[in-house]
Amino acid sequence: MYLLSITGNIAIIITLRMDRCLHTPMYLFLGNLTFLDMGYTSTTVPKLLSILLTEVKTIPLAGCLLQSYVFFLYTAECFLLAVMAYDRYVAICYPLRYFTIMNKGVCMLLIISSWIGGCQEPLVAAFLVISLPFCGSNVVNHFFCDIPPLLKLACVDTYRTQKAIFMLSALVILSTFLSTPVSYMYIVITILRIPSAEGQHKTFSTCTSHLTVVSLYYGTVIFMYVSPTARSSFNMNRIVAVVHSVINPTLNPMIYSLRNQDMKRALWKIFFKR
Ligand SMILES: *[C@@H]1O[C@H](CO)[C@@H](O)[C@H](O)[C@H]1NC(C)=O
Description:
Elements: H1 2-18, H2 25-53, H3 61-72, H4 74-93, H5 98-101, H6 104-130, H7 147-151, H8 159-192, H9 197-205, H10 208-226, H11 228-232, H12 234-258, H13 261-271
The structure holds 2-acetamido-2-deoxy-beta-D-glucopyranose.
């Protein structure tokens, strides 16, 4: 799965770079999303595999903190998905002004703010974790270092820290998620005004990949960090964490390359025609 996800994601990034027709805002966002997906999987999965295959079942503290930091960068993905929803809204509701509204400067600004915004919560969470005293067991009951299992190892009651991280996650997830239903409401209203069914279908087809990725993504992160039941069933939480770190990043490139005509054409041209 890891090789598949890395290959798929690298293929997407190469295609986006090489094909001139794909140098539009939507694909810049997609490139950044793909890059982030590779970051997730590459900080967690190789270490997990080495633990499963060898006798060495330890991780240095710095490695552990890095994993939990990068893993918490899921917030950057939330911001990017919100920006992509807005991008679809502009593309469909204002098609003639799309390239004026989404010009290079605006795209750059949206992407940089997503990255900066996405780096804040992990910073706060990592800071909260390292400021706790650790003196007892150092066995992480998880597949990799993530904040909730690390909090369980602290020798003080972490109820308030957990609650703070939970509130922060809920705030980021729910506020970025809002952008999707709002954008799609306007998109659907605009599409319903298109007279022909074929036109409606064609217009909406540019949104299906985004919509699929968003549903998969928020489904897992809401379960992992927001749903209260997830806190109690730790095993279920671990399964969802694997889905989130391995399956989602593998599916994203497939969803984008299989559901999107331009992407399919470009992939074909770059990898098979030569
Ligand atoms: C991410 O966005 C920036 C800014 O628009 C762009 O220059 C860069 O190529 C993107 N990254 C990828 C991997 O596509």
